[in-house]
Amino acid sequence: MRDQEMSGCVDSALYVYSEAGELYLDLIDQNPQNITITPVPIAEFRLAPETFTEPSSHLLISAELHAIKEIMKLVMGRNVTIGLLPLPGQRMLSRCYAIPNDRDEMLALALKDDPDEVDVVFCNDEILLFKGLIGRVPLFDNLGDAGKISIIWNGLKRIFTLYLLPFNFESRGEINKKTETAASGCLILEDSEGSFAPDMIGHDCSIDDGMVSALIVAPFSIMDYLKLMWLRIRSNFHISKIETSTGYIKTPELIISSDKELSVTIDGEKSTVTPAHFHVKPAALRLNHGKAKSSRQSLKASKSEKHATKFLPAGKELSKAVNKRVPFFTYASEERFKDLFIALRDDAQLDATYVVLMILSTVLATLGLFLNSASVVIGAMLLAPLMAPIISLAMSLLRFERKLFKQSLWKIFVGILLALGTALVLTSVSPYQPMTAEMQGRLSPTVLDLIVAIAAGIAGAYTKSHRKIAQSLAGVAIAVALVPPLAVAGVGLGRLDLQFFGLAFLLFSTNLIGIVLAATFTFRMLGFSPVVRHKRGVLTITIFFLLICIPLSLAFQRITERTHLENSWKIERFIVNGKYLIVDGAKLQEFKDSDVLEVELQARELLTRYDLSEFRRKVNQNFGRDLIIRVNITYIP
Amino acid sequence: MLIRLFIVFAVSLLLIGCEPEEVHLKSGKVVKIGVIAPFSGPEKEWGENGILGVKTALELKPYLLNGDKPELILEDDKNDPELTLKALHKLATEDQVSALLIFSDSAAVLAVVELAEEYKIPILALIATHPEISSGEWITQFSFDDKLQGTVAALFVIDELLIEHVGVVINEDDPHSIFLADEFSRRFKEAGGVIERATINSGTTDFTKIVRGFREKGLEFLYLPLDANHVVQIEELVSKMGWNPQVMVSDGLLGRIRLQHGEKLDIVDGMLSPEVYSNSLPASEYGKKVRSTFKEEFNQIGTTFSGLGCEGTSVLLDAMDRCEDTSDRACINRTLRSTDGFVGLFGKLYIGSNGKTERPVFINMIKDTDLKLVIKIY
User: Are residues B155 and A580, on separate chains, in Cβ contact within 8 Å?
Assistant: First the structure.
């Protein structure tokens, strides 16, 4: 019986305990394994550890964390094996080494003669068992199975107190690299099972990988932070899926420093300050832990070094980030979106393709307008190359890049001239110049036209910043708002009708600036703001906005009035000279300097000129304006 | 710097926006305005509710432009033509009022047409709709007249609802009812419709024969230019029979039922009613001021009576303002009859030299004690 119980256990052991560890004395004395265990108070052990330990001796330790670490330091290199008896409340210790909560099982594990070699991580010569913390790491420092409401509540509580601190990370190993950045905090992980951070790095850390892992959290903006919170709630992401806000370093030796003296919390206790020197002593201890052999052998943790810091603030971004409250919108240096900016500069260049496509699309649009054919006009939109310079203009306004601004503005200006000129020539040489519904629609813009322009601007900026999306789709949306009114304006010039030209060109200008502003705002939302915000750039955008507000507000007021009037006519009836007139619909249009009201009337009796004159008098009297009235009468049998 | 400029700009805009209110120097002179209305008797609610509207208008404009203060002198006529005559005589001769507002019905106003001509006193008849009341030179009709109302109702039914067979009930004791029914029938027949007429008198209480007769003829529309009491009785009977024809009543019915038969409001739900107002329309700036002042001062239900009282008083004060001598009856009458585009509660009003007010007629459906607009007729 005794042999059975003793199989797989050490022959004898030393129980080193603090005052709190006295609670296990009875268990030690009457241990079911009947192993000779000699209790030694920690104070005695500390005085002369060598007198108590001899090679191959086994220590059972039960004490406060700092005392355990002290004993570990004392026995390191003595070929001593260790079993741990965590005190009640030392949940992290139990979780880290998979030690059962049941006292008998805990003792059985501690007495096993099957220790594993584990690493010891030192931070400024202090042992780090599971995790260290510098600064604040919101969203990452709570439990992996925390409730969504708790994550949201705790996340939102910190939203307006987010600061980025200066950090320098220097990894030493096969990869020797220094990174100067700004972060809200940094989490150093040895084997911190149960918290969310290991989930995030794909459990790429363990007690025997010879590495120390650092997770760096640096939300660029509140928008980024919210995005991170959204990902955190979904809990199904990996660091490789996060494009901003976090960095990850895995190395045998890591030095973390800062311009400021930052306190370093090790295993939940404030222990030291920066600079913090983390280094790993591989296989420094032999320790009994409860992690299954099979899972240990297939641990996910790799032994390769990593230094993923490209999504952390760097270079010029640091001046914006360090020691400042996190801004609402994300910003970025040009280096971060190098490819995009190269593409935008290319887009702003005037080339032959642009000229040809612009002329062809206007030819198609003008013919479509003459033919009153929506499908031909749509064809013209597919060809129109206006999206590229407009999006470049939006970005140049946001980042106040003069060269890009000048190039894109010039390209747009040339496009406008080409379109107007083409439509003008076609109209001048055409013997057939009808006023079609497709044209009329562009002479009386509605609020919906403006909404189309804004949506197109947002779509344009969004697709430009996401390579996977086909940009031609947004290009068509932008062309919807620009090419037809531009062609109509050209037709107006061809007819030598400045009023016609002016109305269509106003719609074009409104839509153009609507698109540019929407795209600028979208780029800002998506985090393309410059690191250093130029006041002049902001001023330029503001002036543009104020300037466009004048025609916009005039147009909006007119559109609102018109819509109101047209809607009110749905319930209007007239009695003129005893004849009952039903208004079936009304449309208000501008012609030259006058308002033309086109009314669809239904009547039973024949209307005379006198009746229509009375009708006009009543309309002008009650609608407070001098309207030209055109009536289309349907007689009810 | 930009923020400062913006603040200065915003404050300047606010200061410009806060125009000083009109300030009138008080002249110390009082201009008397007489009000004849039924303040007692069966129709006392008309006068009681209407006078609140008049007071609201005076609250909004307590002094005329020249500083004269309008003062009201009230006379109760119980909506009885004889008493209306006496009240007019007293106000015109003893009280020497400059102008008069009358809240009584067409019969009462028709009774004073000759006397108004004799005394040459401008009168604004607020609710009377008989077309003959403005036949003289001194009585101005503020509501639309029954000729227009009958025409509108008939043409709406035949041209809009496309109903060609209609039942009409007439109270032969009520000239208002007779005129409306006749006008409706005339216009309806002219347009090709067929009318089934039934006659009652003020004392009729049993409508079974009439209603059953209409139902047997397969009618789906009833025109009831009757008083509130008769309309309620007929509708109760119709419902009891499980019949559901569309009903159109005459102007002001909802106001009268609200004031006099509050418990019967659900009975008139779904009826069509030509009115001078509608609850569905957005109020003008003047309308908004009236609404808030009325609510603040009286906290009572506003009806067509109070609306017409307020609007009519404002129009009269506006006419007085256009006279050098605000008590000059001839001038007031002249300016009153040349009111051009006065913005009332819901739109513009015009009064021509013929003494008729040109204003839209609203055909409403009574729904949940409100007047929901169906169409607006100019």
Answer: yes
Mean pLDDT of B292-315: 87
Count of alpha carbons within 13 angstroms of residue B232, beta-carbon side: 16
CA distance B201 to chain A (A): 30
Give the minimum alpha-carbon distance from B191 to chain A in angstroms, rounded to a whole number. 8
- β-partners of residue A14 are A38, A59
- Which helix (H) or strand (E) segment holds residue A531: the answer is none
What's the CA dihedral at B180, B183, B187, B190 to 10 degrees?
A: 140
Structure tokens at A68: 């355990």
Q: Look up tokens 């055109």; give the residue.
A: A630
Per residue in A73-88, pLDDT (tens digit) is 888 877 788 898 998 8
Q: Tell me the Cα Rg of chain A.
A: 38
Contact A226, A256 (CB under 8 A): no
Q: Is the pLDDT of residue A298 over 60?
A: no
- B-chain CB neighbours of A619 within 8 Å are 378
CA B48 to chain centroid, in Å, comes to 14
Of B151, B191, B341, the CB nearest to A575: B151
Tell me if chain A has a CB within 8 Å of the CB of B374: yes
The two tokens of residue B31 are: 């201009």
- Using DSSP, state whether A206 is helix, strand or coil: coil
Task: Please list the residues that pair with A598 across neighbouring strands.
Answer: A587, A630
B350 interface with A at CB cutoff 8 Å: yes
Report whether pLDDT(B110) > 70: yes
Provide, as residue numbers in chain A, all residues whose Cβ is less than 8 Å from the Cβ of B148. Answer: 575
pLDDT tens digit string along A136-195? 877 776 655 567 777 777 777 777 777 788 888 888 888 788 888 888 888 887 765 556
Q: Note whether A635 contacts B: Cβ–Cβ < 8 A.
A: no
- Model confidence band, residue B17 (pLDDT cutoffs 50, 70, 90): very low
Give the nearest partner residue to A582 out of B159, B360, B374, using CB atoms. Answer: B159
d(CA B132, CA A461): 71
Give me the total of CB pairs closer than 8 Å, taking one residue from chain A and one from chain B: 47
B350 interaction partners in chain A (CB closer than 8 Å): 621
Q: Tens digit of pLDDT for each residue in B145-185?
A: 888 889 989 999 998 888 999 999 999 988 888 999 999 99
Instruction: Tell me the average pLDDT of chain A.
Output: 78
Lowest mean pLDDT segment, chosen from A46-60, A271-285, A412-426 = A46-60
Whether A532 has a pLDDT exceeding 70, the answer reads no
Stretch (H or E) spanning B157: none
Q: What is the pLDDT of residue A552?
A: 62
Say whether B378 and A624 touch across the interface (CB within 8 A): no
Query: Is B375 close to A636, i.e. CB distance below 8 A?
Result: no
B196/B194 Cα distance (integer angstroms)? 7
Q: Do residue A575 and residue B156 have CB atoms under 8 angstroms apart?
A: no
Peptide bond into B274 cis (omega under 30): no
**Geometric angle at alpha carbon B21, from B15 and B27, rounded to 5°:** 150
Q: Which residues of A16-26 are buried (b: 16+ CB within 10 A; e: fewer)?
A: bbbebbeebee
Amino acid identity for residue B126 in this structure: L
The answer to whether the CB of A184 falls within 8 A of the CB of A138 is yes
Q: Residue A409 to residues A397, A401, A404, A413, A513: CA-CA distances in angstroms?
A: 11, 12, 8, 6, 12
Give how far Cα B293 sits from Cα of A331, B46, B297, B300, Å.
54, 20, 6, 11
Structure-model confidence comparison of residues B70 and A135, the more confident one: B70
The reported pTM is 0.53
- Rounded CA-CA distance B217/B212 in Å is 9
